[in-house]
Write a structure and sequence with these properties.
heterodimer; A: about 425 residues; alpha/beta; Alpha-Beta Plaits; conserved putative lor/sdh protein from methanococcus maripaludis s2 fold; Rossmann fold; 3 domains; 6-stranded parallel β-sheet; 4-stranded antiparallel β-sheet; B: about 270 residues; L-arginine/glycine Amidinotransferase, Chain A; 3-stranded mixed β-sheet; about 25% helix; globular
Chain lengths: ~425, ~270
């Protein structure tokens, strides 16, 4: 439930008269907070000034008290109207004036009531249910002709993130990318969250709504760099519950199991082995022959590694294909719209996202995650977490470090002895 | 020539209680009130050189004598008051009609936007101050600022005894301000201090503020004020003003004095 809030307008000679200062002081003194949405200051002495103030309170009563206190000083509650909707003109096409979402918690006003938009993610539209009392985020490609789509900005409000009660690296909720920052306390904070989430996951498993999930989005560098054992342990220890990746992560993980190489390099010897470049192709071919990754594990062909751990522990996997894939492995979703939909479907209940060594999958996941999900982006290349933040996932904490080092440190923090 | 709008106290009496000064039990002596009012008129015309315009008193409107609350005037523009209390709302059409008959360009505020005229809107040539919270609504000053083309600084009145700005704030012709700071909240006190330099602020002591020393009419160097305000008179004399005291205690029973009984028309 979002904190009660109201937007008020204050006009007149409010700056020199200290009326604005008085109203803001009154809000704070009564325990509320405010955001100055915009302030227009009169150019000449005769011209009035104007401020729009978002007032937030911790309860409905407190909000009422604040509004009652500031109204005598001229603060007027901004006239609110319901959101406007228009039917989608055709399947897959939004009305021209559609409201484009952010990934922040969003509400729309329907019949005088502010309703939370379900499944919020950035860069999609908002569909109002046929009964006019619910609202869901909807991607352009999933809209059907006649769906009621929110248009314009009236009756739509975006709520700022509340600062998490837990005081850890996520409480700042802003992208911090630097190769020069110490990693250890960040990793300890992540481990702390994962420990709590695992408890919730285990409780929910014995009946209940599963909303303590940890998502790991990984690239093949996890295998190349030597993070496979640590990630396998994390999955087996029930710290990771959803896995997103591509063809390569799965292929090199199983190549490592079957051939001891990753993209042809001997993982223990550390050098290219003769004809090693064929290993991942032979691996993919073998799994294709078996029919699925799951069967490869259950039939005893693949008995260790990330894929085996995922299959054995019921980790929900979405492998999304890309244009350069070999094979691909069975189960890899090659239609990117379907892959997006599969990823979206796996996100409810995710409370922590670790994006490790994968640019495309990290950005794709960032696009789908609401800003309320704490997110960590780990990459040796500082451009990756920067790119993620630039594309709007400002809540992601960036860690510039090698994938294997990260996973091993994280697993050790959680009790791994490897 | 300063023109003032006044109204004879023919029907002046205490018929209701809408401020802390009014007591139904504290009735007005009509003859005494008439004599005091006439005395004030004599001082205003003979000593201060004012010219009087009269509005006809109306039976059943006892407070119409307080013409400061008729509205606000600048040049040929007039904005009639919108009284907060229903008891005085009945005066509105009388004053509005008078402004129209005199050829003023009259603008009415929307209903419910309370504004009690020159009782709450006072100032210096460039900057006006608008008292709010007790009677006038702060939002009225947004509209009045547009109509009159003047900066209006709203100031909050926090003491119920000083329910109109003109009970505690009196701009003088030389740019000084006669006022009683505790009638204002801290923000307003700060704003007044920022706008009016220390050497131009004449602070009235509480005992005389309660005799409505600030409810004075300043015409050039003459300041007409209620009698019994010796310290205030000394403050004024020290600045070169000539204080002209006038006995007005019958009108204090209704919470008004010299300034409340007049409306400056130019």
């Amino acid at each position: 439930m979002s904190a009660p809030q109201e937007t008020v307008l204050l006009q007149g000679h409010i700056i020199d008269s200290l009326i604005l200062a008085k109203v803001l002081d009154a809000i704070l003194m009564l325990g509320g907070t405010f955001d100055l949405l915009d302030v227009q200051i009169g150019v000449t002495r005769e011209q009035p000034s104007r401020a729009r103030i978002l007032v937030r309170a911790s309860s409905g009563q407190q909000l009422t008290d604040i509004l009652e206190a500031i109204q005598p000083h001229g603060a007027v509650v901004e006239r609110e109207s319901d959101c406007r909707v228009e039917p989608a003109p055709t399947t897959g096409v939004l009305p021209p004036e559609f409201y484009a979402t952010t990934h922040l918690p969003t509400q729309v006003r329907l019949r005088g009531e502010w309703i939370d938009v379900e499944g919020i993610e950035m860069d999609v539209a908002i569909r109002v249910g046929a009964d006019g009392s619910t609202a869901h985020a909807v991607p352009m490609g999933q809209v059907r002709e006649g769906d009621l789509i929110v248009v314009g900005r009236e009756g739509v409000r975006v709520l700022p993130l509340e600062r998490p009660k837990q005081r850890d690296v996520f409480s700042f909720m802003q992208a911090q990318v630097s190769s020069e920052r110490p990693h250890r306390h960040i990793i300890a904070d992540i481990a702390g969250r994962m420990t709590v989430l695992r408890e919730g996951y285990r409780e929910a498993r014995s009946g209940g709504c599963q909303d303590s999930l940890v998502l790991l989005v990984g690239g093949p560098a996890i295998v190349h760099a030597g993070g496979r054992d640590a990630l396998t342990w994390l999955i087996e220890s029930e710290f990771v519950h959803v896995l997103f990746g591509g063809n390569a992560l799965a292929a090199h993980d199983m190549e490592a199991h079957l051939y001891g190489t990753s993209l042809g390099y001997g993982l223990s010897a550390g050098r290219a082995v003769p004809h090693g470049h064929e290993h991942h192709l032979r691996t993919i071919n073998r799994i294709r022959a078996i029919g699925s990754i799951e069967k490869a594990v259950t039939s005893g062909v693949v008995t260790g590694g990330i894929m085996a751990a995922c299959v054995r522990h019921g980790v929900r996997m979405v492998l999304a294909g890309s244009i350069r894939d070999d094979g691909p492995l069975p189960g890899v979703v090659t239609d990117s719209v379907q892959a997006q939909a599969a990823m979206r479907a796996a996100l409810p209940g995710v409370k922590l996202a670790l994006l490790v060594a994968s640019t495309l999958h990290a950005v794709a996941t960032g696009n789908l995650l609401p800003a309320t999900v704490p997110t960590v982006c780990v990459d040796v290349n500082p451009a990756v977490p920067t790119k993620l933040a630039d594309r709007g996932s400002f809540q992601a904490v960036g860690l510039v470090m090698d994938a294997a080092s990260f996973l091993r440190e994280l697993a050790r923090e959680l009790g791994w002895k490897g | 020539m300063s023109r003032l709008l006044v109204c004879e106290p023919e029907y002046f009496s205490i018929q209701y209680e809408i401020n802390p000064w009014m007591r139904l039990s504290n009735s007005v002596g009509p003859e005494r009130a008439r004599i005091q009012w006439q005395g004030l008129m004599d001082v205003l015309t003979n000593k201060a050189g004012a010219r009087l315009e009269r509005i006809k008193p109306v039976p059943g409107l006892p407070d119409m004598v307080f013409t400061a609350n008729a509205g606000s005037v600048l040049g040929r523009k007039a904005v009639p008051s919108r009284f907060r209390h229903p008891e005085r709302q009945r005066e509105e059409p009388c004053f509005e009609q008078w402004f129209r008959e005199q050829g003023y360009d009259v603008t009415q505020l929307e209903e419910g936007l309370y504004f009690e005229g020159a009782g709450d809107l006072l100032g210096f040539p460039d900057t006006w101050f608008g008292g709010y919270r007790q009677r006038s609504d702060i939002r009225a000053y947004i509209r009045l600022s547009e109509i009159f083309g003047r900066e209006i600084i709203p100031v909050e009145l926090v003491d119920r005894r000083f329910y109109h700005l003109d009970t505690c704030f009196c701009p003088l012709s030389g740019g000084e301000l006669l006022y009683y700071p505790p009638a204002f909240d801290g923000y307003a006190q700060k704003v007044i201090e920022d706008r009016i330099g220390r050497d131009r602020r004449l602070v009235v002591p509480e005992s005389e503020a309660l005799r409505f020393a600030c409810n004075a009419v300043c015409i050039k160097q003459r300041v007409v004020l209620p009698e019994g305000c010796a310290e205030t008179m000394a403050l004024l004399a020290d600045r070169g003003y000539e204080p002209c005291p006038s006995p007005l205690d019958e009108f204090m029973k209704a919470g008004g004095s010299a300034k409340c009984l007049t409306l400056a028309l130019d």
